[in-house]
Write a structure and sequence with these properties.
Elements (H helix, E strand, L loop, with lengths): L2 H4 L5 H16 L2 H8 L3 H15 L4 E4 L2 E4 L1 H24 L7 E6 L4 H15 L4 E6 L3 H9 L5 E4 L8 E15 L1 H7 L8 E4 L4 H12 L6 E3 L2 H9 L4 E5 H10 L3 E2 L6 E10 L6 H13 L6 H7 L1
Parallel strand pairs: 3-4, 3-5, 7-8, 7-9
Antiparallel strand pairs: 1-2, 5-11, 6-9, 6-10, 6-11
Length: about 300
């Protein structure tokens, strides 16, 4: 370690040599310095000799049993202290870049926010200093574009993705329930096809799940909404039957504000996690994805993928 090299010294071994040197310079005693550093005496002696050989100067002189600093040793004290101080400051300053402070998630469906809630609660207990930024996308293509452009670290969508640059894991299968306010059942009965119907607009993923059933039973929706929350509110207001993800209405069902039709057709919707095939996983992203995989109700293979990457 030449004098010019010490200015850029950040290696642990080189810093340890300087720490040992400063302790010996302070104690002026190899044995006492070794005790303070929890090193053996030969180790301390070897480290001091390594510094002296690299600088090409004598840092200490022994007169009898007494150890004295040379002029070179005295001069080095100030530089060694500055080096260690700067290294500590650099570590503190760069700590915030050791992992992402913000994880960005795109949601191709607003319902996924309900699925994410318990996941985020667990994640916050593990990494409380990492923020999660969630953006609701107008549609799935917008979420996919955000992943491809690295605007999102990952996204949650509810349809198939045909893109070789995208990795997709099916993580949650969510039941779709046919729900209505209890007083509607008293009025129209338990046959769901006798009720007025509230639907999402044509072309949506959810609508595609039951649109054929509507046509088969010659049902024309009395109301159409562009989002599931609008249908939920309409159902709560007694305007008709809505087909909604269980996660969105489980509180209403528990409170008795809505009831589910027992003999209605069984439908489900799949939620999938997508990210760029070449995405680099920081510790927080990896942690969040692992929590998400554990909370999922499908054997997605995501945990195995994360362990392999």
């Amino acid at each position: 370690m030449r004098a010019s090299k010490i200015v850029g010294c950040v290696a642990d071994m080189e810093l340890r040599l300087l720490e040992t040197f400063l302790m010996v310079a302070k104690m002026e005693n190899i044995t006492q310095a070794a005790e303070q550093l929890k090193f053996s005496q030969p180790t301390v002696t070897t480290q001091i000799r390594t510094l002296e050989e690299d600088f090409g100067v004598l840092l200490f002189e022994r007169v009898g049993k007494k150890l004295y600093r040379t002029e070179a040793g005295t001069r080095l004290i100030g530089y060694a202290e500055k080096m260690l101080l700067l290294h500590g400051e650099a570590q503190a300053a760069l700590q915030e870049f050791s992992y992402d402070r913000v994880i960005k998630i795109g949601l191709g469906t607003a319902v996924a926010a309900h699925t994410l809630s318990p996941v985020l609660q667990e994640f916050q207990t593990q990494l409380p200093n990492v923020a999660v930024q969630i953006e609701h996308c107008l549609d799935v293509p917008t979420a996919v574009k955000g992943v491809l452009d690295n605007c999102f670290d990952f996204a949650i969508v509810h349809k198939e993705i045909a893109n070789k640059r995208i990795v997709k894991f099916d993580i949650v299968v969510e039941p779709l329930l046919w729900v209505a306010r209890p007083d509607l059942l008293a009025k129209y009965g338990k046959d769901v096809w006798l009720h007025p119907f509230i639907a999402l607009k044509q072309g949506s993923i959810y609508r595609g799940k039951y649109d054929g059933l509507l046509k088969e039973n010659k049902k024309r929706p009395v109301l159409e909404y562009s989002d599931s929350e609008g249908i939920r509110q309409a159902a709560l207001n007694g305007l008709g039957v809505g087909v909604l993800p269980e996660v969105l209405v489980k509180h209403d069902l528990r409170e008795g504000a809505l009831v589910a039709f027992e003999d209605a057709p069984l439908l489900t919707i799949d939620f999938s996690l997508i990210f760029h095939r070449e995405k680099t996983f920081t510790l927080p992203i990896r942690t969040l994805l692992e929590v998400l995989a554990r909370h999922g109700n499908r054997e997605s293979g995501l945990l195995e993928y994360m362990r392999a990457h």
